[in-house]
Design brief:
The protein is an alpha/beta fold. It is built from 15 helices and twelve strands. The longest helix is centred in the last third of the chain and has 19 residues. The protein is globular and about 70 Å long. The structure holds (2R)-2,3-dihydroxypropanoic acid.
């Protein structure tokens, strides 16, 4: 092969966009086959910048920070696929992508156990006041230790966990709860098959019954216009004053301001939040409270899982650009058109 041919081959590499920083080895692998517009400095693009970055590329790897809608796609005439490095895809306007003939993919399964582990960790940290206790130690309050004056928490074992959103991650949390001898109730758009309910020992109840009965309410449902503010002041009012609320799903599923007010007035015991309305901003009212555990959307954040998510997103992108069906395709209608 001549240098000239090599140069020609290099010049013919299709262009792709990698909109957020990824692992260097993954980027190097992509550079073997593509001319890559990368963003290893990890600056979040404005909508105008994203529109420009998508112009002239055939594929893009993005995360929840990139909103892919008609406006983002306006100049993306060559675009065939946008691969999300995330299982949730509320950053996609799937109808607009389908109308533009752009395949949409996500990263299911590879993060289920890691996210369920984290859900349980956040629940334990919240119910047992772990972050508050750590601050107490760091602030030198240990000399005030007493039987009745420690940060006293709520038990998980033999309590009732209510899971709203019983997909793969919800079921993973239910299975972990069984190990703690918890009673598992759930609410979901559709009821699970009997065999799946049995596998995670879960009983289906209405949302209202769940909120009234559960000692710990865990949210793992997808964000859609219908699930916006699934938990607001009215729903919190149904919960036990001793209950905890965990949001592992998406910002916007909880009305954060109503929650802050309820926590301030001790209408529920505590909350654990990994996702926020308008993140990375956090409602300042939440920041003032000690009975809330705050984490920065890290439920899937182990190195092994984040690598698996990036690898799956790359596989989706490569398959689509080879004219094959990507493994986790969201809008199969595009292939039929
Ligand atoms: C997901 O994959 O949806 C997680 O929330 C990480 O973004």
């Amino acid at each position: 092969m001549t240098t000239e041919t090599n140069t020609q081959t290099a010049a013919k590499k299709p262009k792709i966009l990698v909109a957020r920083a990824i692992f260097p080895e993954a980027l190097a692998k992509l550079e073997e086959s593509f001319e890559v517009r990368s963003n290893q400095e990890d600056r979040i693009f404005s909508p105008e910048e994203l529109q420009k970055e998508l112009a002239g590329v055939v594929g893009a790897l993005v995360a929840g920070s990139e909103r892919i809608d008609a406006s983002a796609l306006a100049q993306a005439k060559d675009l065939k696929i946008v691969a999300n490095i995330s299982v949730g895809y509320n950053n996609f306007d799937v109808s607009a992508m389908t109308a533009a003939g752009v395949l949409a993919t996500n990263t299911p399964d590879v993060l289920t156990d890691t996210t369920a582990d984290f859900g349980f960790a956040l629940l334990m940290a919240t119910a047992r006041r772990m972050t508050e206790s750590e601050h107490w130690v760091r602030a030198g309050h240990w000399d005030k230790w007493s039987i009745v004056n420690n940060p006293l928490g709520m038990d998980l074992h033999h309590s009732t966990i209510g899971i709203i959103g019983m997909g793969r991650i919800g079921q993973g949390i239910a299975q972990r709860a069984l190990g703690f001898g918890m009673q598992v109730i759930y609410h979901n758009r559709s009821r699970l098959l009997e065999a799946d309910e049995k596998a995670c020992g879960a009983s289906y109840v209405s949302k209202e019954a769940l909120l009234r009965t559960a000692d710990h309410v865990v949210l793992v449902l997808p964000y859609t216009p219908e699930s916006h503010h699934t938990i607001g002041a009215q729903e919190i009012a149904l919960m036990k004053p001793s209950a905890t609320l965990i949001n592992l799903a998406r910002g916007g599923i909880v009305d954060d301001l109503a929650l802050a007010q309820a926590l301030k007035e001790k209408k529920i015991f505590a909350a654990g939040l990994d996702v926020f309305e308008g993140e990375p901003e956090v409602n300042p009212e939440l920041l003032k409270l000690s009975n809330v555990v705050l984490t920065p959307h890290i439920a899937s954040a182990t190195e092994k899982t984040r690598r698996a998510m990036v690898d799956l997103a790359i596989d989706n992108l490569c398959k689509a650009l080879e004219g094959k069906r990507p493994p986790s395709l969201i809008n199969a209608e595009v292939l039929k058109a």
